[in-house]
Amino acid sequence: MTVYVDLVFLTNLAVDGTVLLLTAKVRKLRPKRRRVALSSALGAAYAALMFLVSVPYLYSFAGKLLVSVLMLLCAFGYGGALRFVRLFVAFYVVNFATLGGVIGTSFLLARSGSPWEGMTLTEDGGLLLGWQMQLGLFAAAFGLSAWLFRGASAATEQQMKLEALLVDVVVTVDGERWSCRGLVDTGNRLYDPLTRIPVMMMEASIWKDKLPSGWAQRIQNEPADRLIAELDGSGEAEFPWGDRLRLIPYRSLNGVSRLLLAIKPDSVAIVLGSQERIYRRVLIGMDGGSISPDGTYRAIVHPDLGMTDSTPSIPSQPA
Fold it and tell me: Which residue ranges does UniProt annotate as crossing the membrane (predicted)?
């Protein structure tokens, strides 16, 4: 078998560089390019050295770990034991994920036949698994694995950020309670212009059994003042929340001024883990559609009502 050491070096240079950059992305680091290039060259030289020098201890498990440590130190520096351990773990997670994708693609595209054809028994009872892949296919499979891993990492990171902003919302009106998941939206700065009471949003369908017939659907398309105008004396008797309704002026994204139908609850509890805040000075705007496309949350929480893990629990606000 003919081995072209220069191709081994260049292939490992590209692979090691990609793995190091993915590791940096996972750990949210921005290493200098020349340090990543130098670290990649170190790993590529180590791979090429296997075909030039016969030093068994150099290619042992301890030797490979030592080279990995040197590559990480060269690319990212030390920065403390905990930071380095996290870098080391991320580095090998990326390695296993991308290499696993390459091997999986190889076996997927392998010709059919007996699985024993690719296995060889050694004289001392060992088992060798044959694995062959053309350079072009290897590059394509590795690139696809790296791209998929990067996409999965980005999606996981985005989901973690979203989870950090999700809270449990419990609304109390006339002694009855409704609960749902809410998203703390730092861009929501909607207040009642007269009282400066913060306004959060919630899907009207949560209260469809309490609202007048059809309101949960009509709120999305019909003016809020028209709906309130339909409530006469008899209507208010059937709808006990008539005195809780409010009209909040706001400006939509296209610059058109509109009125938002809101309700004044007895209280709103914002719960995150074991922490809870109770607010009584708050209005809830009704949204006639679905606030979250996938149903993850059904309320938009005003940032004045939000809570983080470091926020201590406080007593109820006065009305």
Answer: 6-24, 36-59, 65-82, 89-109, 129-149
Supply the range of the domain harboring residue 262: 165-305
Full pLDDT tens readout for the chain, 319 residues: 555 667 777 777 887 878 888 888 778 788 888 888 898 888 888 888 877 777 667 778 888 888 889 988 998 888 888 888 888 888 888 877 776 666 555 555 555 555 555 555 555 444 444 545 455 555 665 565 556 556 655 555 555 555 557 889 999 998 899 999 888 887 778 899 889 999 999 998 898 888 888 888 888 888 888 888 877 654 444 678 888 888 988 876 666 778 889 999 999 999 887 888 899 999 999 988 888 877 788 999 988 886 544 333 333 343 3
The tokens for 139 are 């590059």
**Residue recorded with tokens 């773990």:** 89
State the Cα–Cα distance between residues 283 and 268, nearest whole angstrom: 9
Tell me the C-alpha distance between 18 and 74, whole Å: 15
**Helices 33-49 & 5-26, crossing angle to 10 degrees?**
140
CA dist 11 and 73 (Å) reads 22
Q: Which own/partner contact pairs does 209-214 have at CB distance under 8 Å and 24+ positions apart? A: 210/173, 210/241, 211/239, 212/238, 212/239
Active-site residue 185, yes or no? yes
| CA distances in angstroms from 35 to 76, 94, 98, 137, listed in the order given | 8, 19, 22, 29
Give the pairing type, strands 299-301 and 283-287: unpaired
Do 84 and 175 lie in one domain? The reply is no
> Does residue 192 share a domain with residue 273?
yes
Task: Count how many Cα atoms sit within 13 Å of the Cα of residue 252 in the half-sphere of its side chain.
Answer: 6
Rounded-to-integer distance, Cα 228 and Cα 287, Å? 15
Q: Which two tokens stand for residue 106?
A: 């190889």
CA separation for the pair 83, 60 (Å, rounded): 26
**Which entry of 6, 16, 168, 185 is annotated as an active-site residue?**
185
| Same domain (yes/no): 16, 153 | yes
Is residue 259 domain-resident?
yes
**Is there a domain that residue 11 lies in?**
yes
Task: Count the domains in the chain.
Answer: 2
